[in-house]
TrEMBL record:
GO biological process, one term: mitochondrial respiratory chain complex IV assembly
Region Disordered, annotated ranges: 1-26
Gene Ontology cellular component annotations, sorted alphabetically: mitochondrial intermembrane space
Protein name: Cytochrome c oxidase assembly factor 4 homolog
Stretches with biased composition (Basic and acidic residues): 1-15
């Protein structure tokens, strides 16, 4: 039996229909979910990642922005280790 393609996002009958993919949950929390879906739709349509570079770059830029903001937020929450 062949394993599914790495980017096969179809639901298997054994999966709970209300269960959301953990990757989709994680990406939706970044605010970049729609851009991620645009990449997926482009890939499904063209079957060639080279034709989707605009969508990939836009998604990448969104994720970088989120990661920078998250890092700054975590740095602010971090207790100061400097003692007087």
């Amino acid at each position: 039996m062949a394993s599914p393609a790495p980017h096969d996002r179809t639901r298997r009958p054994s999966q709970d229909q209300d269960e959301e993919d953990p990757v989709d949950q994680m990406i939706s929390r970044t605010g970049c979910g729609e851009l991620h879906y645009a990449v997926q739709e482009c890939m499904a349509e063209h079957q060639d990642w080279r034709k989707c570079q605009s969508q990939v770059q836009t998604f990448k830029d969104c994720m970088i922005t989120f990661q920078k903001a998250r890092k700054e937020q975590l740095m602010k929450q971090r207790p100061s280790t400097e003692s007087a």
